[in-house]
Every structure is written in C-alpha cells, then in structure tokens.
Amino acid sequence: MSSVIGRVGCVRGVGLALVALIAANCLAGCGNFFISTDSSTKLTSSAATAIAGTSITLTAAVTPTAATGTVTFYDGTTSLGTGTLSTGSTTLTNTTLAAGTHSLTADYGGDSNYDGSNSAAVSVVISSALTATTTTLTASPTTQNAGSAVVLTATISPTAATGMVTFYNGTIVVGTATVAVGTATLSTTALPSGTDSLTAVYSGDSTYATSTSTAISETIQ
What is the pTM of this model? Predict the structure, then answer.
C-alpha cells in the first residue's frame, strides 16, 4: 500500500513540475504582454510661424526617458522624417513646409519595453517668402547750422510696407519713425557739427523684408 501511495505522490510531483515548466515558458514567451509599459509623446516646434524656406526644429520628447527606438514626424499624413531617441528625445529640422497652416505630429514606434504613442498636434503657420524692399533717404536742408532742425525722410518701396525706420549717423541712432504710405520722417536738431554720414534702416514686417538706404552726407556748420 505504501508503495502505491509513493508512486502516486511521484506522479503528482512530476505533474506539478511539468505545469510549472509550461507556465514559465509561457511567461517567457509572452513577457512583453505582461511587462510592457505605456509611453507618452510630446511634440514642440521652435517656431509657431515661419517664412517658407527657413528652418524650424521639431522636438519629440518621450516619457519614460528610458524608452528607445525611433520617432516619425508627420505633416498631416505625410512623413517629414524620423529621429532616433536619445535620453527620451529626438529632433528633426525641416525647411520644406509650404506656405499655409500645418498640423504636425510625432509618432513613437515603441520598443521591447515601452508601447508606442502619438503626440497631440502642433500647428505651424508658414508664410510666403518676404517681398524685397528698397529704402531711399533724403535730408532737408543738406547744409544746416548747428542746433537747427534737419528733416530726414525715408521712402520705402513698395509703399504698402509697414513698420519702423531707424535713422543713423554712422552707428549712432538718431531716432525712429513709423512708416505710413511708404514714408517715414524724422526732424532732428541733434546732429553734431561737421560732415555726418546718415542712413535709414527699414525694419520690415510680416510681408516685406528689411532694407537699408545708401548713406548720404549732411553738413552741420
């Protein structure tokens, strides 16, 4: 009787060991299912607005920062390129976005320990290339007594340009004036005696590019 009980106990022990071995193999084969961790991806852009052809830098930050693998950057459904994560982040520099509003996202593909994740969309507005301008400076009168007013007039073309003009005597700022219908005017009594070299610098705006006039001479007696 004891030998029968012994054989039953032996069979039961073998059976339990077999079950344990099968369970261990299952856990090993399905390890990713049990230990995979959620991730999150955040996308930022170096600029919310930019001129067509200029560069913007997109940065994807993935948490946990131990995540490895690659991130694909998208403009809508169009891939802009990929980057490899390093300490939880990767960047992509782009100069090819056309004029218009773009909805950009970053898609982390995941790795053996972390699930993939998608960022929220970031909006970037690309403007057409700036229109070139010219700035012309005149002074009236061209010869003046010290302490008397000299009127400086900057003419900006095209006349639709807006913004500011800064007037210089050499590298010294004489003053600023607002552009209106293509013209900015400044009256000054501060020019020093001698021959002064005057220039006008147009600041530019969202449509028109900056420009600098040719220097003119003003004689203060």
Answer: 0.52
